[in-house]
Here is the input.
Amino acid sequence: MKVFIIGASGLVGSNCQKHFTEQGWDVKGSYFSYPTQGTVFYNTLDPANAENFDIAAWKPDIIVHCGALTHVDYCETHEDESYQKTVQSTINIIALAKKCSARMVYLSTDYVFDGKKGPYKEDDPVNPVSVYGRHKLEAEQLVLKEVLGSLVLRVTNVYGNELRGKNFIARIIDQCRNNQKLTLKLPYDQFASPTNALDIARAMFVLLHDNKKGIYHIGSTDYMNRIELALRVLQYFPKAEYDLVPMNTAQLQQPAARPLIGGFIRSKFSSEYPVFLFGTVDSYLSEITKGY
Ligand SMILES: NC(=O)c1ccc[n+]([C@@H]2O[C@H](COP(=O)([O-])OP(=O)(O)OC[C@H]3O[C@@H](n4cnc5c(N)ncnc54)[C@H](OP(=O)(O)O)[C@@H]3O)[C@@H](O)[C@H]2O)c1
Here is the structure.
């Protein structure tokens, strides 16, 4: 299987590139501003750019689109840029997938829901409450409509190994390891299912292998709010010093509204893959802090 991963310099994309390669697939991935080992340049917003890797000439069977502007509050105040980087970029990749006759995977989010009644199943009614959520929904619907056999994986609260260590858990770990005192102003009313990017890659692999299509919710068995998540991480750093300031979302005054009771019920995936085990925040932390 030949797979091209757009956004392989990022958290989910890099884990997909690593896992698919280990499984013996022929994989290439792209970066945009942050070159990483084994990635080639590709700008989804400028498909005619002469510096772009020629994906069509490489003829992938599958294109995984992990490229995105994921800063939810920035999207809220930069709506046009958010549209370009989420919807227009996806329109461009859809055209590319059609040109290559490739299947497509799109990474979406629980932000397509309003967060009043989570955790969510795939057929629950969508109702995004932010610009980011609206644009992700528009993009996933376009992919499903336009590319035959395409797959949408909705994910949330992703953590795991990544070079830049920019995810929520990685940033806490980094500060603990550098003996920095942490100030944690965190909401107690935002709930989701933290999920390891490697498990997303593993789930995507089996779904692609079995030619599955449509929407799948991919979330681990963990379900917690931001404070519980931070404390779970801090348990592994008993010497860490921190100030915890519990807040509710309204007090945080974030530009974008959040789906408060978010996260997923992944009974669709689990019924099709009953022996597939997801890791947890604890299993990840105990592994990476061994000998610390
Ligand atoms: N992380 C989460 O908690 C989370 C939750 C829900 C959904 N998702 C979705 O999962 C997907 C992957 O997220 P992630 O956390 O892996 O994001 P990420 O780490 O920020 O990676 C984003 C990737 O997109 C690339 N990119 C940005 N602009 C591009 C452009 N114009 N052309 C080509 N590539 C471009 C980046 O390249 P450079 O870094 O090289 O510039 C990077 O490789 C996204 O669709 C996101 O919406 C993530």
User: Anything to note?
Assistant: The longest strand covers residues 103-109. Residues 7 and 67 are 5 Å apart (CA to CA). The chain has a mean pLDDT of 97.
